[in-house]
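Structure, all two chains, one model.
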Amino acid sequence: MSKRPKAASAWWITSTITLAIAAIAGLSLWWAGGCAGLGICKPSAWTEAELQLLQSLSLNQLPPPLPSPSNRVADNPQAADFGHRLFFDARLSATGTISCATCHQPERNFTDGKARGEGIGTAGRNTMSIVGSAYSPWLYWDGRSDSLWSQALAPLEDPAEHGGHRMQYLRLVAEDLNYRHTYEALFGPLPAVVEHLHAEPASQSPEADWQAHWQTMAEAARHEVNRFFANMGKAIAAYERLLLPGASRFDAYVDALLAGNTVGEDSERQAALFSADEIRGLRIFIGKGRCIDCHNGPLFTNNEFHNTGVLSFAGELPDRGRRHGAAAVLTAPFNCTGAYSDAAPEDCAELRYMREGKELLGAMRTPSLRNLAGTAPFMHKGQLATLADVLEHYNKAPAAMIGHSEAKPLGLRGWELKALEAFLQTLAAPLATDPKWLRPPVRSEG
Amino acid sequence: MLSQILKSISVVALALFSCLSSAAQNRGTSLSPEQIWTSTSSQFRLRVESSLQPLAINRLHSWTLHLEDAMGQPVVGATIEAEGGMPEHDHGLPTKPQITTTEQMGTYRLEGLRFHMPGDWQIKLVIRTDRATDSILIPLQL
């Protein structure tokens, strides 16, 4: 009889001690997680799942650029060389003063540091970088182009940008013998109509002039000129495909982490590469900041469309974004299934499986976060002046003016926002592109 | 008593370790072509082969679907609707995938799939034949 209470008491003590140890172990683990969450651990505290996320962002995970079946010269070096010359040529404008490089400036990661692009007039939206654009199935903030070559064409004829027209560019290529030889070697003879082109008198309304001329041309001649115009875009695209981001301090840090493999081995090297603040920022980026939801993969973009409640400027109607872009690309004459594409219809998978619908109202394409220095102001109309403003926007996540915002308030504290900004600066790096492509070409007159 | 304590500690430690290990292994899931998915009311069985293995974000790809009835016979002439998304984020797929039939009996193609965020996804297939309607939910971790 007397043994039973003793056994029960022993069992009770055992259980209590076990529970206490379990509680301590649990608390320690919770603390380890909490410490990682707060970012006050050493770099060695990354979990296996976090390391996999970090690796997914590393530039060495970047596959070769997507093939461009609609552009048969996409990877042709002569086409890239021709495109390079066209890209920097201000004769491709109504005024002789605007080239692609006016807004896509190499020293600013191929953007212009302005709220909206400024050519002959002011463009509708903020200038997007073209670095890494070979990886995007869609171009422009609203994705209204499905190839780099079709994207390159519209600004050339936009009165607010280059303000010229395809007949003017045909005459330029015909008269610059260097251009003409290069063009004909790549694409065959210029359209026959070129023999009947005469210099037009200077006009106050070049757009009206060329449109009037266009009406007098036979359909076959118009088709030939369109093909010429598309070919210009294809050469520019071949050049733009060479503009690729280079490995940054972030990539070196991830490489060091993964090479160290087990925790702590390379901690000195890691500490030299990334400050504690930058590590905190990175942890927020892939964790509670939820930045990685959209800014994912080695280019820090999923190239998809999201409404994140970015407000219009006061007095301006909100932008319909992808809702408009998706409808526009389906009927664009220079799209993948159009008459000027080199693709077979079955190669146009992006267009075929493209999503449309009202849920895309106000959605804009996710931009890459590599090389943000010099690219402010940010967002589709340059609404936010600084990176700190962008982070504050996502922290508050205001309701959208149009459509439904996917962003939810983050509740990050001031030091966390600063850490996030410190991390984003580590993505800066010289481009992985031969420097000769980043300078205007030396022009050899024909 | 000491051995009891040690035993309990090791059980707790093992439980915590396995919990952490499983948390660490939850990304980059492959879609095994051997795995058999059974529909909610057990009317159909499905095997899925992905053209992208392991599954990855931001890549347009397709799945080949091998559909059988409960008796293991290929199901021909079914109408299949595919939808998907991230329940946690309350959004759907970024693309509009399409189902096509193939010449192989009971085999269909689900084309135009892309996942654009890391995290938990699911694909729901609603299958209709003259005799039955049923659905299959496939959870995925990207």
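Chain B touches chain A at residues 1, 4-5, 8-9, 12-13, 16, 20, 23-28, 57-58, 60, 89, 91-98, 111-112, 114, 116-119 (CB under 8 Å).
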